């Protein structure tokens, strides 16, 4: 049998493309355009992409904002109960300032996330449900406000999913959602 690695006989390079191949190329090109449009459209029309306003803020100012929030929040054994719908979280090597927090199920919250030093990842998942995880980037110099609502009561883990230094793997936090 001929090896498929051998060049075919004759001037195969100049041969006309088979009509069926042209059709398939057209179909795949069209489908690629559909998928691309879908992707672009879904960021506007779908509701799974967390979007929200982002503001420039120096790490020092953001640290002060989180400190002011912590002053106002009610301290409980399970964590801070936010005084309003605003929840502040400050990422730093290697922890989450403002966590743990205690939230109400079914309530809509505005999560303010920002970093005091380097880039971190704000990754949230409930208990052991690895398959249902949300991941957001936390950047220094920016305060990102993301609206979130949790329907299932329980403990939600917050882990850093952006390598930020030797203690990256220890950067854990949590919040409780109660009924
Ligand atoms: Cu913070 Cu990794």
Summarize this entry quickly.
The chain contains two helices and twelve strands. The chain has 179 residues and is α+β, with helices and mostly antiparallel strands. Bound molecules: dinuclear copper ion.
Structural class, please?
alpha+beta
Q: What is the total tally of β strands?
A: 12
User: Strand-residue fraction?
Assistant: 35-45%
> What is the name of the CATH architecture of the largest domain?
Sandwich
Low-confidence stretches: none
Q: What is the CATH third-level topology name of the largest domain?
A: Immunoglobulin-like
Bound molecules: dinuclear copper ion
Give the domain tally: 2
End-to-end gap: 71 Å
The Cα radius of gyration reads 25 Å
N to C succession of SSEs = HEHEEEEEEEEEEE
Q: Based on Cα principal axes, name the global outline.
A: elongated
Helix content: 10-25%
CATH top level of the largest domain? Mainly Beta
CATH superfamily of the largest domain: Cupredoxins -  blue copper proteins
Main sheet characteristics: 5 strands, mixed
Number of helices: 2
Mean pLDDT comes to: 91
What does this structure look like?
It is a single chain. It contains two helices and twelve strands. With 179 residues, it is an alpha+beta fold. It has two domains: 15-45; 54-178, Cupredoxins -  blue copper proteins (Immunoglobulin-like, Sandwich). The chain has a five-stranded mixed sheet with strand order 1-10-7-4-5, covered by helices on one side. A hairpin with a 6-residue loop joins strand 8 (120-126) and strand 9. The chain is elongated. It starts with 18 loop residues before the first helix and ends with a strand. The relative contact order is 0.16. The mean pLDDT is 91. It binds dinuclear copper ion. Residues 120, 160, 162-164, 168, 171 line the site of dinuclear copper ion.
